[in-house]
Amino acid sequence: MPYYQTWEEFARAAEKLYLTDPMKVRVVLKYRHCDGNLCIKVTDNAVCIQYKTDQAQDVKKVEKLHGKLMRLMVSKETHSGAMETD
Amino acid sequence: MVLLENDSFLTELTRLFQKCRTSGSVVITLKKYDGRTKPVPRKGHSESFEPADNKCLFRASDGKRKISTVFVNLNSFLQAYSNLLRAHMDGLKKKDKKSKSKKTKATQ
């Protein structure tokens, strides 16, 4: 279960994993206020990628990634490239 | 597992965050949902089910209590959800200014 060191790599890998099988992938977010850390996991029950942080600046990034994945889930397009309407 | 309306889910999520400020963790799960209410049958017969493509399932838990909701129209929710996360996840470390000043001293 690899913990990614940089947010950019994690975000890219998360999106890629989601696009391989949208129905299987789930995103899990665990926040501990008492310890002051945040852990995100994206998995399709075969591949699992994680990112851990204790930095406030990462909250915004997490929330943006959540929004992006939510929009992918709700859109009827199967490919993210097709989200732009011509 | 309590299935709630979208607004009640946000309210309950706020309550979960507030409850867990002193101890414990809040776990939020997000998954694409196709609207099935029955398990996948072993042999054939899955033709009678029309999978919806545009819903997502949200779950939240504090270890004891579980809540969930299904979303179809995201736009109104997304703003509220982002604000909620940003407002409550404030126990993390801010940018370390000390290390920055150390770096500037080292370069001089």
TrEMBL record, chain A:
Origin superkingdom: Eukaryota
Q: What is its main location?
A: cytoplasm
A single GO molecular-function term is: 7S RNA binding
Query: One of this protein's GO BP terms?
Result: SRP-dependent cotranslational protein targeting to membrane
The cross-references to InterPro entries, in alphabetical order and at most eight, read: Signal_recog_particle_SRP9/14, SRP9, SRP9-like, SRP9_dom
Q: Where in the cell is it found?
A: Cytoplasm
Residue ranges annotated for the SRP9 domain, each copy included: 5-73
Q: Which SUPFAM superfamilies match?
A: Signal recognition particle alu RNA binding heterodimer, SRP9/14
For this UniProt record, the keywords arranged alphabetically read as follows:
Cytoplasm, Ribonucleoprotein, RNA-binding, Signal recognition particle
Please give an example of a GO cellular component term from this record.
signal recognition particle, endoplasmic reticulum targeting
Q: What is stated as this protein's family in its record?
A: Belongs to the SRP9 family.
Role this protein plays: Component of the signal recognition particle (SRP) complex, a ribonucleoprotein complex that mediates the cotranslational targeting of secretory and membrane proteins to the endoplasmic reticulum (ER). SRP9 together with SRP14 and the Alu portion of the SRP RNA, constitutes the elongation arrest domain of SRP. The complex of SRP9 and SRP14 is required for SRP RNA binding.
Record's subunit section: Heterodimer with SRP14; binds RNA as heterodimer. Component of a signal recognition particle complex that consists of a 7SL RNA molecule of 300 nucleotides and six protein subunits: SRP72, SRP68, SRP54, SRP19, SRP14 and SRP9.
Protein name, per record: Signal recognition particle 9 kDa protein
Q: Which organism is it from?
A: Monopterus albus
Tell me the organism's taxonomic lineage: Eukaryota, Metazoa, Chordata, Craniata, Vertebrata
TrEMBL record, chain B:
- Which keywords has UniProt assigned to this entry? Cytoplasm, Ribonucleoprotein, RNA-binding, Signal recognition particle
Q: Which domain of life is it from?
A: Eukaryota
Q: What is the lineage of its organism?
A: Eukaryota, Metazoa, Chordata, Craniata, Vertebrata
According to UniProt, the name of this protein is: Signal recognition particle 14 kDa protein
Protein family (similarity comment): Belongs to the SRP14 family.
GO CC list: signal recognition particle, endoplasmic reticulum targeting
* GO process terms (BP): SRP-dependent cotranslational protein targeting to membrane
UniProt source species:
Monopterus albus (Swamp eel)
Quaternary structure note? Heterodimer with SRP9; binds RNA as heterodimer. Component of a signal recognition particle (SRP) complex that consists of a 7SL RNA molecule of 300 nucleotides and six protein subunits: SRP72, SRP68, SRP54, SRP19, SRP14 and SRP9.
Name the InterPro entries for this protein.
Signal_recog_particle_SRP14 (IPR003210), Signal_recog_particle_SRP9/14 (IPR009018)
Q: Function of this protein?
A: Component of the signal recognition particle (SRP) complex, a ribonucleoprotein complex that mediates the cotranslational targeting of secretory and membrane proteins to the endoplasmic reticulum (ER). SRP9 together with SRP14 and the Alu portion of the SRP RNA, constitutes the elongation arrest domain of SRP. The complex of SRP9 and SRP14 is required for SRP RNA binding.
Protein's cellular compartments: Cytoplasm
Q: What GO terms are given for molecular function?
A: 7S RNA binding; endoplasmic reticulum signal peptide binding
